[in-house]
Each structure stands twice: as structure tokens, then as C-alpha cells.
Amino acid sequence: MELLYELGSLVPPILTGLAFWFVMRALLRADRREREAERAAEREWEQRHESGGGVGPRD
User: Fold this and answer.
1) Which pLDDT score, from 0 to 100, does residue 27 have?
2) Across the 59 residues of the chain, what is the mean pLDDT of every consecutive 10-residue run?
3) How far apart are CA 48 and CA 56, in angstroms?
4) Domain range spanning residue 21?
5) pTM for the whole structure
6) CA–CA distance from 10 to each of 4, 6, 37 (Å)?
7) How many domains does the chain have?
8) What residues contact residue 54 under an 8 Å CB cut-off, 6+ apart?
9) Fewest CB atoms within 10 Å of the CB: 1, 20, 29, 38?
């Protein structure tokens, strides 16, 4: 019977650790996706300005 109480006392820290892991994983994945999107936008901007096209003032 004591073994069940001891095992039961491990449940909250395990669940807290899992919640922390899921949150950190989501944050890191979102950061990675944001960096990839920023790189793609920068590449697109550079291509537009190298080719002379894109948005800009007209004379």
C-alpha cells in the first residue's frame, strides 16, 4: 500500500516535467519556423532588389 502512495507522489512532478517539455518544444519549433520565414523573406527581398524590379519610386 505504501508503494502506491510513493508512486502516486511521483505523478505531479512527472506531469509538470511533461508540460514543461511540451511548452519548450512548441516555443523552439515556433522560433525555428519564424527564422525560416524571415530568411525566405530576406531572400525574396534581395532577389527583387538585385533584379531591379519590385516596389520603388518611379521617375
Assistant:
1) 99
2) 91 98 99 98 94 60
3) 11
4) 1-49
5) 0.65
6) 10, 7, 41
7) 1
8) 48
9) 1
